[in-house]
Write a structure and sequence with these properties.
The structure is a homodimer of 209-residue chains.
Chain A lengths: L5 H19 L4 E2 L1 H8 L3 H8 L12 E2 H12 L5 E6 L3 H10 L6 E8 L7 E3 L2 E5 L3 H7 L2 E6 L3 H14 L3 E4 L12 E4 L2 H16 L2
Parallel strand pairs in A: 3-4, 3-7, 4-6, 7-8, 8-9
Antiparallel strand pairs in A: 1-2, 5-6
Helix pairs in contact in A: 1-4, 2-3, 6-7
The structure holds nicotinamide-adenine-dinucleotide (2 copies).
One nicotinamide-adenine-dinucleotide sits at the interface of chains B and A.
The structure holds a DNA duplex (30 and 30 nucleotides).
DNA sequence: TAATTGCTGTGAAAAAGGTAACGCTGTGCA
DNA sequence: TGCACAGCGTTACCTTTTTCACAGCAATTA
């Protein structure tokens, strides 16, 4: 059993989204090159990624959409579902809370945390907001494995440490800071400044031609 | 003159941020291994990335922080500055407007657009929000090269087409949809669902050990 | 029935990305 | 002075990721 790369995991998640759209359009089956066109990648890439799954397509009809989605579900999702905590209910934190609300049944943000007393002990965008003092208790109680960090950068490392100490094994960090975490914690940064500057740089190159 | 990869561009942007923090802590010089530690990468990686710049460090003192920042500025930024437009002033769009407000003098969001009449023709989070009908005119007028897309997924392609038609050469897309764009337009997706699912997947793996 | 077609799964090749190693250089110290 | 050192720039190497290419297969057609 070979382990699957982070890039493939990301694309599988993308394929699932695209397949869901195709299904809505009353599609029954799909070929690798169709999925590739939708995902902006090559057909070979799609087929290679799908090798991680235990589902095989038919050379004649391609992949059955519902079966493929189910197979990706089985592969990506925890059977009993996974709970996520979000720390820092500011502008971005609230946007994210509303965005992930009810999006995936097997992966939902079940608790929010903040240190601002105006925000705690009430529901914000559909999610209860707890004080930081309760973090450890709630993470344990709800068996939370993933933490989303949307606090200011100077508070990010402290919050990360608290989450890790409470038992989280994955962090999604939106603060513009590089966090330290032990190897048993998977860390992913979403760096919007970097993304925008990349786009700016290459758009300038393209425009100059 | 070899061209620089997107990954290196991203890391240069990150180094600049980290260097800024170091400068605030009254640092004068920095070694590649120090910057590497801050960026969670290897010293060789840092040195290699910096080869794109025309600034060379001293083997004895390392890199002078201010000079290195200046050199990255020269490399990444447009000398006259670059303007960005944001389309879709919803939860996420507003968060982004406030976040990028005054962050980088050479790269600022100078106009927002929406098709909701309650949002247009007024200032939102410091930025004037125009109706979609003005998009073409304003993009030309302000010489906007980059568009940020924060509209619902079903509207994303239409908005992208409008931006491209207006003359934009780079798109930063936050909608969960894969957009089509001609090769002279650089396209970058920020896919939060994908990121969160990746973290969820690997956190489960780590937790099982 | 036999040849043709178009797509899958997968080994092999190629490309991209990252790491290690080495020569070089200025500095501090015996 | 001359030698050991620490870190830079760069090349060569290694790993990961992507693409290419082709056997195999079921439906279709002559
Ligand atoms: N707004 C954006 O679009 C955007 C984009 C990219 C990155 N970010 C980053 O995301 C983070 C949040 O951005 P924002 O715009 O929502 O900021 P914000 O100031 O609106 O929200 C920050 C929230 O974190 C809470 N907080 C602060 N310190 C805390 C602590 N120690 N423990 C718990 N909660 C704490 C605050 O009470 C506040 O509710 C920042 O690091 C920002 O740089 C934001
Ligand atoms: N909120 C989040 O944290 C989050 C996270 C990831 C992705 N996204 C994606 O970002 C996008 C925006 O999310 P949101 O939560 O801000 O949604 P939202 O509904 O709050 O905002 C969407 C905005 O786009 C405007 N709009 C709709 N159609 C338009 C059109 N054709 N032209 C111009 N403007 C139009 C609406 O008037 C509204 O102001 C969505 O695609 C969403 O899936 C959001």
């Amino acid at each position: 059993m070979k382990k699957t790369s982070a890039k493939t995991i990301g694309r599988l998640s993308l394929y699932r989204l695209l397949l869901d759209n195709l299904r809505r359009d009353n599609g029954i089956t799909v070929y690798s090159h169709e999925l590739a066109a939708a995902a902006n990648c090559s057909a070979a890439q799609v087929r290679r990624d799908l090798m991680s799954l235990d589902y095989a397509g038919s050379p004649v009809h391609g992949y059955r959409i519902t079966d493929l989605i189910e197979s990706i579900d089985n592969f990506l999702d925890h059977p009993q579902g996974q709970s996520v905590a979000l720390v820092g209910v500011g502008n971005l934190g609230r946007a994210i809370l509303s965005y992930f609300r009810g999006r995936r049944p097997k992966l939902s943000i079940v608790a929010a945390f903040d240190d601002d007393e105006h925000k705690i002990n009430r529901v914000i965008n559909g999610t209860w907001c707890y004080p930081m003092a309760d973090l450890r208790k709630i993470v344990k109680e709800k068996n939370i494995l993933v933490g989303v960090i949307t606090v200011p950068p100077n508070a990010a490392q402290t919050v990360a440490d608290q989450l890790i100490e409470a038992g989280v094994h994955g962090l999604l960090n939106f603060a513009p800071a590089r966090l330290k975490a032990p190897p048993q914690v998977y860390l992913e940064d979403v760096d919007m400044t970097m993304s925008l500057e990349k786009v700016a740089y290459f758009s300038r190159l393209r425009a100059e031609e």
